[in-house]
Amino acid sequence: MAVTSGRTRRPRARGKNLPPAEPADHALGRSRGGWGSKLHLVTDGHGLPLAVVVSPGQAQESRYLEPALNAVRIPARRGRPRQRPDRVAGDKAYSYPHLRHWLEQHHIRAVIPTRSNQPRRALDQNADRRRRVIECAIGWLKEARRLATRYEKLAVHFLGVVKLAMIQKHLALTLSNTP
Asked: What's the number of domains the chain is made of?
């Protein structure tokens, strides 16, 4: 028992009251710039965020492609939401044979350039140019000060702030009166 201001209370056990979805490392890890997190964002062709996954800074990006794509729900006019996009554009960090095989199994075209140690594959140049849409979406998210400097300790709270910024982006595009 610990004594504070005349009252006794039990010392709080560290890590016991974490939310169920909270990773043990709080999605924090060492990266080039110090401690940080990575956002793995899935957007549509116009840069509208559809899903996001948070990972530690040192984690390999290719490990989070499947969870990010599994979180996508594309609304349909009728019936259940579509879960798979037609194609996925990514950078060379996602150029692994097992990821390409997973995308083929799910009937998703991969628009991913090959790394220098892999055999060359034909790349759709028009689709590859549209990769800048995701870079613009990440740049927009970085403008949110709360996301650029992570103040939340828990990863689930940080993910909530990211989703709040995504909602703000959806509302800004939906309620804008410019085409």
From this structure: 1
